[in-house]
Amino acid sequence: MSFSQFITEIVSSLAWPAVVVWLAYYFRKPMAELLRRLSRAKYKDLELDFERLRESSAVVESYNLQKPKGPSKQSPIEEQTLLMTKEAPSGSILLSWAIVTGTLAAAVERVTGKEAALTAPAGRNINELQKAEKLSREVGEILNDMRVLRNQVAHNPDAMLSVTKGQADLYAKSAIELVEILNGLE
User: Is residue 146 within 8 Å of 100, Cβ to Cβ?
Assistant: First the structure.
């Protein structure tokens, strides 16, 4: 093989990857906007449905929680969760769910008088609150949807990489609203 044939082979081998990289760079802003609007992602057996989370978020907001007037004061953990959506979207989902499960266990103890371990499955705690008629079916379904989404992100590496900042932000804000609802249960 001559030097010119060698160069020709290298150029032909690198041409397609170089074009793909250039196109990705050139269209990065439109692609980022497209990913923000993404409502459903499917890869092999994994399917993430963020549209359902958007709908759930609207239901949670409809509870018209009593918020103090003036500037909103978030807890440090809420602030950290929302900041984390920018740097580690999938990590933000995991942290948000951890906050919800802790609040869920505390609500079960407060409402039912039963001891609820933080390690108890969230589904069991949701059912306990629904049996006590303190948690509506709607909110229970939202919690279950968020639990399923969290499990997909936690246990599937492909899902972890496909979560966008916008989706993580929506999840974190929904989690914060649900925490307020759970804290209001008596």
Answer: yes
